[in-house]
Amino acid sequence: MKKILDEEYYSLIETSELLGISRQAVHTLIKNGKLKGRKIGRLWHFSRKDIKEYLDQRTPPPGTKKED
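Structure for Helix-turn-helix domain protein, as requested:
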């Protein structure tokens, strides 16, 4: 994790490990607009907020059932 302008950012590899998905899957999420990130130079970085927003949009609120 890096600190950039007083905000902590995760690398693409760290983000893929946190989400339990491949690096290619992270790239796909970025391409499809489902995960926000910042490209600094050649490398992608993701704030805690970016990751939380992605998780929140794919996780149903507590007390709701998953529909089949």
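DSSP finds three helices and four strands in the chain.
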